[in-house]
C-alpha cells in the first residue's frame, strides 16, 4: 500500500553502486573495484498516475461519444418532425 508520509523519501533515477575490496592471494593483497548502475523507479506511483491518465482519457472519449450521439439524435428528430 502507498504511504504518502514516505513521499519525501521516494527516490527516482539512475544510481551507481561502487564496490571497493581486496583479497589476499597468498602473496599480496589484490584490490578489486566494480561499478554497477541501476534505475530506481517508483512503480506504484507510476501505476497510479497511468491509471488516472487512462481514466481521464476514457472519460473524455465517453463525453465526446455522448455529445456526438445526442447531436445525431437531435438531427434525426428534426428530420422526422420537420
Structural account:
The chain has 82 residues and is of the alpha+beta class. It has one helix at 43-81; strands at residues 13-24, 29-40. The chain contains one helix and two strands; from the N terminus they run E-E-H. Strand 1 (13-24) and strand 2 (29-40) form a beta hairpin. The longest helix is centred in the C-terminal third of the chain and has 39 residues, at 43-81. The radius of gyration is 30 Å and the shape is rod-shaped. The model has no long low-confidence stretch (mean pLDDT 89).
SSE sequence, one letter per element? EEH
Identify low-pLDDT runs.
none
Measured distance between first and last alpha carbons: 59 Å
What is the tally of beta strands?
Answer: 2
* Sheet with most strands: 2 strands, antiparallel
Radius of gyration: 30 Å
The structural class is alpha+beta
Shape: rod-shaped
| Number of separate helices | 1
Average pLDDT score:
89
Q: Percent range for helical residues?
A: 40-55%
Tell me the β content.
25-35%
Task: Give the spatial strand order of the biggest sheet.
Answer: 1-2
